[in-house]
Specification:
Chain lengths: 373, 374
Amino acid sequence: MKIAILHPWFLMRGGGEKVIEVIAGMYPDADVFCIFANSASLSPVLRSRRIIVSPLNSVPWSAKLHFHLMPLYPWAIESLDLRGYDLVISSCGPVMMGANLPQGAVHVCYCHTPPRAWWDLYAEQQARLSWLPRYIYTFAGTLVRMWEFTAMQRVDRVIANSCYIATRISQYFRRDSIVIYPPVDTAKGFLADYTEDFYLTVSRLGREKRIDLLIQACNKLTLRLRIVGVGREEKHLKAIAGPTIEFLGRVRDEDLSALYSRCRAFLFAANEDFGIAPVEAQSYGRPVIAYGRGGVLETVQVGDQNNCGSGVLFPKQTVESVISGILEFEKKEELFSPSWIRDHAQQFDTSVFIDRFRNIVDNAVQHGSARGL
Amino acid sequence: MKIAILHYWFLLEGGGEKVVSALLELYPDADIFCLFADKKSIPQGLSPEQFHCSVLNKIPLARRMNRELFFLFPSVVGSIDLSGYDLVISSDSPPTKAIVTPADTVHISYCHTPSRYIWDLAPSFTAQLFPIARPIFAQLAASARTSDFIAAQRVDHFVANSQYIQKRIWRYYRQTSTVIYPPVNAMRGTISQTHDDYYLSAGRLGSAKRIDLLIETCSRLGRRLVIAGTGREEKRLKSIAGTTIEFLGRVSDEDLSSLYANCRAFLFAADEDFGIVSIEAQSYGRPVVAYGHGGSLETVRVDDPKGRPDTGVFFAEQSIESVMNGIQLFEAREHRFDPESIQKHARRFDTSVFKEEFRSFVDNAVARDFAGAH
């Protein structure tokens, strides 16, 4: 069976790329198609593969401009030649579900989210553009949304990375989907013998991650906060940080393990579609204090009468709300059971993902695109 | 619950605007979005923060060409930021349903009709154009249909303004819908003990209303016909009118009331999606002579299966002979009509009924969708 794996781009290594590496590992003979690729960003797993790039990749500075070429993605994907493939596994984000498949091929799409810049964040993104790009995006938006909606109707099986995303897929594409959480390497986690007096957050330092809220909350409570990660907001965040805040930048994997396992709790204020870092923290048995929206509603178990759960959720993206979350945590800090939290995190393990994903794909291949006959 | 209401435009007082006014009475805190608006036609009592108009409204030429710019609407409404709303109600006829709503927002589309000049009237509309404009319109209409169909798939719940429109929604969008008749101010009507010998026609003078048929028929039969209303066709209609036809132009509400109350019958030859004016006439206890097609089949009661008395007569075709038959049939049965039961029939379409039905529909829809999502 000839298999093609479609992924938008290999320009950096984020959550989406980790998923593709796992899938590529499951299908060692599969070819990989993408719109853009930067060979330096390819992981070792993928470097040995046949990587086929779209014509857009040869646009000068495409790696930098990729966001601005968005209106051209549909054309780029339709120009990928998939003749001869029996199974196509696409990953979206951006538009890979629109690939033009041969008649007999089966298409399984793993959807991280409908492209937010065209859908739920469209109006917001547009407001930030200057007038010329804004007009281009206004018209391109209508066309791309129509194209995406139609494209999604042709996919044989849609897999959503969370229930949160399943509702988004249903809202924008009117497709039912199966939920399979993205693979997290939770088997690696361990329980440390002791914890230290600091809170932890691990994240790219982007504006939408709302690390500013965590910093301000810890400033006010004079709590130690360690921040792992780099990003555009670094300078701004350092400017507002008080003496108890520590920026660690990029850290090695071993150091990260140590930080995860010894923190008091993991702080998270972003509204993420899934959010891998809180799951990683839980795999070390550490509780999570998070903004109660999006993916964390599914990954963090709040307590009930019998059990303290795996964390505390706060209701709003405000400093006061973060503070109330931290205070609530500190009140019952002793009651959290690290081993329970670690067990809870195991359901997101890579092995679970592999099992369930293979199941869906095998089932799809068995029944083919026979749906509708 | 935070609510947004999206209406295509506030340019004249039509049925669509009445729906929005009634919705605003139900949800006074709702924010209003529209493509175009005339200062005069904006609903009363809205604060400026509540009312949002598209960029197109700032371009005077675009305002004049509101209908011709239909192919831009999906892009314009697609750019409206609706984040933070729990419920969005789109009042849809010119395509405004292509909005992008957040995943946890419920989108209800109150459909007056799928936009007629890109759907059912597209062929006749094309034929009216200059030959050189026809292929251009055909192309724009084709892409507008694609966009409209796809946008319709993303609507959470359709409300149709009549069974007639319900069928059209199914025909063109393949979506099911719930019928809620539009609001009519039907409680105001009073029954006059005597009436005059004129027939009445009221409404905008557009070519689709086929007032030409009424004029020619009444001229031939020598019946008095009083026409209230203005519109693009006024000049042409006046040129074909005989001596028994009287044009009143725009009339005040009080004058219209007395016109309704004292007419012999109300004449209606349009193929309407609903037909508010014919309900208004009936609310004054007056019978209606109508083209037996479209919304009139639901607004005028003829041959009721439950045996309730008729409220008018139908004629079968949009032709002079047929209208003539209708008027003669009416005159033969004129003594049988009972103003009180006609009025009672009309009151079933009152604004209060609309509000009650719409509120309970929204409550159900929102409750169901929230239960489904969590």
